Amino acid sequence: MGPSVVTALGLLFCISCLLLILSWRKGFGKGKLPPGPVPLPIIGNMLQLNLKNIPESLCMLAKEYGPVFTLQLGVQRIVVLHGYKAVKEALIEHGEQFAARGPMPIFELVSNGFGIGVSNGERWKQLRRFSLMTLRNFGMGKRSIEERVQGEAKFLVEELKKTKGLPCDPTFILGCAPCNVICSLIFQKHFEYNDQKFLYLMKLLHEQVRIGSSAWIQFYNCFPSLVQHLPGPHRKLLKLFHFLHTFILEEIKEHQGTLDPSNPRDLIDCFLMKMEQEKQQPLSEFNIDNLVNTVADLFGAGTETTSTTLRYGLLMLLKHPEITEKIHEEIDRVIGHNRSPCMEDRNKMPYTNAVVHEIQRYIDLIPTSLPHLVTEDTQFRQYIIPKGTTIIPFLSSVLYDEKEFPNPNQFDPGHFLDENGNFKKSDYFMPFSTGKRICLGEGLARMELFLFFTTILQNFTLKSLIDPKDIDTTPIDSGFGKIPPSYKLCFLPSQNM
Question: Where is the chain membrane-spanning (predicted)?
Fold first, then answer.
């Protein structure tokens, strides 16, 4: 390549950089895009983000640019909402304009846009409405689902007893319980904890979340057209989703052979019946692709999030034995050891309720929530956010608000207790997000967390293998979700049993 060509290319590069910077700055100011750091060509603001700890990076940027700021990540222009006021104003007060799901390239690749998680418009509305109605018909939010959770809590206790008080990694056991609750709603099945098919399903779900929260997948989502041609963890993630979809398809085929329209057993039966009703409608959203991906979405949302919260929660309780002891005292006083915990107990157990809330607040499981999207040019405060802009509701900034939760970096159940020791609700408690895209299983997840935590502590004393002050609770990844470090503990049977 001759010197003149190199000079021309260098000049062209400099001009393109200058134009990019000028156009970027032109977008800021009153009535235009929110402020933000100047992006570099191609990579945008990637260098300003630590992909292993995105929440920390966003906090630093908010200090410089304010509660609403703009980033460029690869081909995506993103507006970040920092703090309770900005998140509430966008997702609730302007809920319709901010209700669309933003791009998630790796998940769009595996789902082809089918299912609840990544869909928008009429598809999303129909599938969400159907799923909510069907899950409620099968007991979600009712006494019948509470009985299922209580029953699963007993299976969990029996499985923990088999550890005989010896050191164990709780990851798998804690994953089985919420997974079985979801299986009962979708498959009308309860798997034994040593069932090979169940073991396989649990492994798939756990690996999906672990890889999906890695820095590599965050990089993939910024540069999908480039990274998809490279080797890397995304290829394993695609295989995991393929295996999960195959697993679900086998269940669907089994249901098709045994379906009784007069007696639907679960969500799959109801979906198959809906498919039959609309088979003459060529644009119907009730098809096999949407069924497979909706079931996969429900599994992902209903299993790993709850099991990770349980796993992380037990680690926090090991770290703070004085808090665990107070829960034991409240359980002894309110429930005793002759009956199972129930949801009516929650109102009489303000301290335990506060601890469960503080676990969710402190671990901040999905720090940036799932991305949203504005589907039209949208006036927001003094800015105009262009159609197609991705929106990140930064939930960490709400859950760690210093005024609402003094000393937010400290694990303190007092954040949810008033001066008299009564439970104190907070509008800032948004672990399930808020607005039109709030997690559809929020009520079930809250029930599971209270009943599983309480039942475990009713039956066992938790023993750490190391001094509590030496326990490190720092997540090993903070990409899409926060992944707790691996650990072992002993479940010692309660002396009162």
Answer: 6-24
- pLDDT tens readout for residues 248-291: 999 999 999 999 999 999 999 999 999 999 989 989 999 999 99
Contact 182, 447 (CB under 8 A): no
Q: At a CB cut-off of 8 Å and minimum separation 6, what does 211 contact?
A: 217, 233, 234, 236, 237, 240
Phi, psi of 464 (to 5 degrees): -80, 150
Phi and psi at residue 363, to the nearest 5°: -75, -25
Mean pLDDT of 76-97: 94
Strand 390-394 versus strand 76-82 pairing type: parallel
Q: Report residue 74's pLDDT band, with 50, 70 and 90 as the boundaries.
A: confident
Q: Is 3 domain-assigned?
A: no
Structural domain span for residue 489: 31-493
Three-state DSSP class for 438?
coil
- Mapping DSSP to helix (H, G, I), strand (E, B) and coil, where does residue 468 land? helix
CA–CA dist 304, 36 (Å, integer): 34
462 half-sphere exposure, CB direction, 13 A CA radius:
31
Using CA atoms, how far apart are residues 291 and 311, in angstroms rounded to an integer?
30
Is the confidence at residue 8, as pLDDT, over 70?
no
Inter-residue contact 303 to 205 (CB < 8 Å): yes
pLDDT above 70: percentage of residues in the chain: 92
Please state, in angstroms and as integers, the Cα–Cα distance from residue 216 to each residue in 40, 234, 237, 381, following that order.
20, 8, 11, 34
Q: What's the DSSP call for residue 167?
A: -
0.70 exceeded by the pTM?
Answer: yes
Q: Is residue 127 part of a domain?
A: yes
Is 17 known as a binding-site position? no
- Residue 48 included in any domain: yes
What six digits make up the tokens of 184? 């009962």
Angstrom distance (rounded) from CA 338 to CA 253: 43
Backbone angles phi, psi at 35, to 5 degrees: -65, 170
pLDDT at 30: 42
DSSP string, 212-233: HTSHHHHHHHHSHHHHTTS-SH
d(CA 271, CA 253): 13
CB 234 within 8 A of CB 246: no
Mapped onto helix, strand or coil, the DSSP state of residue 31 is: coil
Q: Is residue 26 part of a domain?
A: no
Q: For residue 87, give the CATH number of its domain.
A: 1.10.630.10
Rounded Cα–Cα distance for residues 80 and 65 (Å)? 10
Q: How far apart are CA 277 and CA 143, in angstroms?
A: 30
